[in-house]
Design a protein that fits this description.
This protein is an alpha+beta fold. The chain has helices spanning 36-46, 71-74, 77-91; strands spanning 51-59, 62-69.
Length: 92
């Protein structure tokens, strides 16, 4: 839980990532992330100038994701996720 003095972020809409869609065929731009407020607060608390990608599995709001990136870092996200997937594959 955040301390009362911790600055809170104004919730931002889910970033529209070109070409990304949901598994049911819907467009990511039409969805508010279940954890947008947490991602916004995490970005502030960590002073992440480039942004935050938050994936929650079986959390208090269920499973979901929220993306809060600067425009400059949107292009880098697919490569970052590929590197993460490759690292996980090596561990399993």
């Amino acid at each position: 839980m955040l301390a009362a003095s911790t600055p809170r972020a104004t919730p931002a809409p889910v970033l529209a990532l070109e070409g990304m869609c949901l598994m049911d065929g819907g467009d990511l731009r039409d969805v508010n992330g279940k954890y947008d407020d947490y991602a916004n607060n995490l970005k502030l608390l960590t002073k992440a100038a480039g942004g935050v990608v938050l994936v929650v599995i079986d959390g208090i709001r269920g499973t979901g994701m929220s993306v809060n990136l600067t425009d400059e870092n949107v292009q880098a996200l697919p490569g970052i996720l590929r590197d993460l997937a490759a690292h996980i594959d090596k561990l399993t």
